[in-house]
């Protein structure tokens, strides 16, 4: 389906919906996209991520699989 057809299909679906919450979400999504908003982390969070990355690169951080985490939680209960 080409872009114009996709737009027409979207307009049809939008006209058919009675869910105000859905319409608000779509409006917000389109507005944010048109304003080309970007997400920016606060400096303190960037610094924390840099510290964690550094620890990981030095091998100072231990990693667990999801299965290992589940097992540890089950043992703790």
From TrEMBL:
InterPro entries: CHP02574_addiction_mod
Pfam families assigned to the protein according to its UniProt record, in alphabetical order: Unstab_antitox
Protein name as it appears in the record: Addiction module protein
């Amino acid at each position: 389906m080409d872009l114009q057809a996709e737009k027409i299909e979207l307009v049809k679906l939008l006209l058919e919906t009675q869910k105000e919450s859905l319409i608000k979400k779509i409006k917000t999504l389109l507005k944010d996209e048109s304003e080309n908003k970007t997400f920016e982390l606060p400096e303190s969070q960037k610094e924390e991520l840099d510290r964690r990355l550094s620890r990981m690169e030095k091998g100072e951080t231990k990693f667990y699989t999801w299965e290992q985490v589940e097992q540890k939680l089950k043992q703790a209960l």
